[in-house]
Amino acid sequence: MRDAQALAAAGRVEEAVALLRAGAGRGEVDALLMLAAWHVLGCGVARDMAAARDLYGRAAEAGSAAGAQLYLACLVTGSGGPVDWLAAMDLLRARAAEDADAAHQLALLGPMALGEGGAPAMLPPAEALSDTPWVRIVRGAASPAECDYVAALAAPRLAPSMVIDPRTRQSMRHPVRNSDAANFPVLAENAVIRALNLRIAALTGTDVAQGEPLQILRYANGQEYRPHGDYLPGEANQRILTAILYLTDGYAGGETRFTATGLAVSGGKGDLLIFRNTDADGTPDRLSAHAGQPVTAGVKMIATRWIRAAPLPAAM
Which of 181, 299, 301, 310 lies 20 to 30 Å from 153, alpha-carbon distance? Predict the structure, then answer.
């Protein structure tokens, strides 16, 4: 679809859209995917997730692996239409013979006790570590196989971590945090990531829509996250909870240490650490300030979900 891109770059957007629509009408995969992406971004056409979902579905029917991945994300997250977990499972099964990742997802989802829409039917208990600040841990919240899968899925997406500038609200590099990170926004979620997000939501007593995109963090030898709070100064929709899923073990150092009380947590692989960042009235709890201590050997990987007071708009 280089012709459409060239037309758009030359300011001839209507012609570019017409070209894509004509190609999509003929079932051309590249046209279907590009037009869907333009609907997601609102580029040249109205931002319309329902239209994007339909186009991704048509690309999947035409045999596109990328279309299938994006259509699956729409089905499991409810982007552009209702959640349809059964259709998502049918799509995975249809692709499993030729798509190793689809087969892997099915193998991981099979042992999960899932209810309607991919939500967990059963939950492990939480253990209290502290009431001031409020800190809990859920042992074995995820299986080792699930942890390995998420870590491997994130590996090619990892890039230097960013922090949010409190003045501009923009992401920026900062020496306080020298790990590597990868995000899984809504259209990057697959069935396994969604099932984990739903499990985290259930374990924290929140709606899955309150969670920011799952972020994977990797700390190698000497890397750390210096003392900080996860609450966002001046933010109306505050981060009320943090959930940290430990994806690896066998490393040294790297404890999650609450600086005001000295509580230090070294979660095992599959454990979920949960703590509150605010008081009941939404005021930032300064006692929740914490640090990711320097890793002294091995590699620490965690999956973090910051949970807001109210649902967030879907991040694509």
Answer: 310
Look at residues 305, 294, 153 and name the one whose alpha carbon lies nearest to residue 220.
Answer: 294
- CA 240 from chain center: how many Å? 17
Alpha helices (H) along 179-270: 191-204
What's the one-letter identity of residue 252? A
Residues present in the chain in total: 316
**3-class state of residue 220 by DSSP:** coil
Distance CA 56, CA 78 (A): 14
Question: How many domains does the chain divide into?
Answer: 2
User: Is 121 inside any structural domain?
Assistant: no
Distance CA(255)–CA(266), nearest Å, equals 5
Nearest to residue 74, comparing CAs of 189, 216, 169? 189
Chain-centre distance for alpha carbon 276 = 20
Least confident piece of the model among 175-179, 193-197, 268-272:
175-179
Does a structural domain hold residue 119? no
Instruction: Answer whether 0.70 is exceeded by the pTM.
Output: yes
Residue of 300, 55, 74 whose CA lies nearest to 185? 74
Angle at 74 between CA 316 and CA 143, to 5 degrees: 90
The answer for 80, left when phi > 0, alpha when psi is -120 to 50, beta otherwise, is: left
CATH of the domain at 33: 1.25.40.10
Full domain range(s) for residue 239: 127-308
